[in-house]
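1st attempt posting a full record on here, be nice pls
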Amino acid sequence: MTLPEPSLPTAQQLAALCGSDAQNMTLRIVAETGSTNADLLAEAAQLQGPTLLWAGVQTAGKGRAGRRWHSAADATLTFSLAWKFALPVQALAGLSLAVGVTVTETLISFGVDARLKWPNDVLRNGNKLAGILIETAVDKTDRQSVWAIIGVGINLASAQDLSTQIGRTVADASGLERTGLMAALLDAFSKALPLFEQQGFKAFAATWNALDAYAGQAVNILDQEKILQHGNAAGVDEAGRLLLDTAQGRMAISAGDVSLRIREE
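the predicted structure (as tokens):
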């Protein structure tokens, strides 16, 4: 296994900062890998319990719809958390939104003015601060359960450089210490994910709506840059579907591969 770079903690140092609910997680920290999601997906059949894989740098990180996730040493927090749910895969439909709530509330607890953009982004001042990608693998020894591989990337510094690199403005949470943030996220996940297993996204819907960056704004729904619908964003329902007030009435839109954008008047 690759040894952690100096700015990364050891697994033991990270565990010492975590609360009791997170102590049953396997913690793995590496300096570099291709994709933490891909690594944990490949190992899903061998995993024994909740497993964190935190990489200082991901060289082949990916975001939603196969887009590349850019990361740089000391400028991003990129990790994946494998979590086994005693649920059918279709019951995980709102999981990415629940994860968004968990990440956003944790950032807010560190003083970051973070908000949510449906379905999978965390924003700061209207620009992307963090992204979430969830992939699943059926547990081959327990067909009633499914592994969710929860990938998270948070920009912690160098937003200007990253914006230049990818050609669009992004945000960062400069000044945050990665290890403390990672420990706080693990504590938050250790409470949020069992709650999701018990109650689904409905337990998170009100909080998601309170943190909605686009509430009441005129937006377009796009599929590969083609406008499918437009209207005023009205939050999400208890299934995690976007509610859109249109000239034809209120619509509920499932995530799929569609995107949400502010409508230019």
